[in-house]
Amino acid sequence: MNHGITEEFLDKIYKLTKQFFALPAEEKQKCARETGNIQGYGNDMILSDNQVLDWIDRLFLTTYPQDKRQLQFWPQVPVGFSETLHEYTMKQRIVTEKFFKAMARSLELEENCFLDMYGENAIMNSRFNFFPPCPRPDKVIGIKPHADGSAITLLLPDKDVEGLQFLKDGKWYKAPIVPDTILINLGDQMEIMSNGIYKSPVHRVVTNREKERISVATFCVPGPDKEIQPANGLVSEARPRLYKTITKYAELHYKYYQQGRRTIEAALI
Ligand SMILES: O=C(O)CCC(=O)C(=O)O
Ligand SMILES: [Fe+2]
């Protein structure tokens, strides 16, 4: 996609992410998540005793709106990390707006139709993922199968190491590596707004024995005050409404994810 973010800039994010995860543990711990808080650095959150943990370390930061930032979790090292993340966030805002408008036009809807539902108070969360080499890739997964709970996700997958796979017709397909490209993944809330015309794909990340892998996913989530529902123009007798009106979907999503269930089922009429 022609997103107006240069390859050099994406490369900078890629390098800073690698540098952050390469820091000694005690340095990363300065950004450590506190119990009950999703923001910060840590491994997979534990919600139940029988949960199978994902093979992953991550740094999760709310980047937008700016007053939702918890800057105590933003790394001081590597130098430039926080400034670059701020810059990336502002660039991503522009991409998001263009994308929602293009999606509306593609369905012959009024241009701001999705953007209005997404809202002025929409939230952006950036998750920096690190998958260490895994001695048992046959047994352990990096991120369990899921569809994103966002409206859309801007994803920067690793430039060199594969791992991301998409499910189609019961089979897993590898996402090809395309360096310095933002992959826009549709989340469940886009599926709902489009009344199921666009689907949020199920995907997972597999581990490998030799190489570490990183990725940066920015989840673009409608404002907590917003009601998300199929756009009026996409509901007709021929195509009845498929989804309920939902709010705060992202909160529900995490619980469903850890139980290995698809959240979208909760939204189906
Ligand atoms: O690591 C990747 O390529 C995908 C990450 C992902 O699916 C997620 O963070 O939701
Ligand atoms: Fe995902």
How would the blueprint of this fold be written?
Blueprint: H1 7-22, H2 25-28, E1 40-43, E2 57-64, H3 81-106, H4 113-118, E3 123-131, E4 141-146, E5 152-157, E6 164-168, E7 171-174, E8 183-186, H5 188-193, E9 203-206, E10 213-221, H6 249-258, H7 264-267
Antiparallel strand pairs: 1-2, 2-3, 3-10, 4-9, 5-8, 5-10, 6-7, 6-9
Helix pairs in contact: 1-3
Bound molecules: 2-oxoglutaric acid (AKG) and fe (ii) ion (FE2).
Residues 146, 148, 203 line the site of fe (ii) ion.
How would you explain this protein's 3D organization?
- A hairpin with a 2-residue loop joins strand 6 (164-168) and strand 7 (171-174).
- The protein has 269 residues and is α+β, with helices and mostly antiparallel strands.
- It has 7 helices and 10 strands.
- Helices cover 27% and strands 22% of the residues.
- The protein starts with 6 loop residues before the first helix and ends with a helix.
- Helix 1 crosses helix 3 (81-106).
- The strands form 2 sheets. A 6-stranded antiparallel sheet has the order 1-2-3-10-5-8.
- The chain binds 2-oxoglutaric acid and fe (ii) ion.
- The site of 2-oxoglutaric acid has 11 residues, from strand 3, strand 5, strand 9 and strand 10.
- This is Oxoglutarate/iron-dependent dioxygenase.
- InterPro entries: DIOX_N, IPNS-like_FE2OG_OXY, Oxoglu/Fe-dep_dioxygenase_dom, Plant_2OG-oxidoreductases.
- Belongs to the iron/ascorbate-dependent oxidoreductase family.
- Keywords: Dioxygenase, Iron, Metal-binding, Oxidoreductase.
- GO terms for molecular function: dioxygenase activity; metal ion binding.
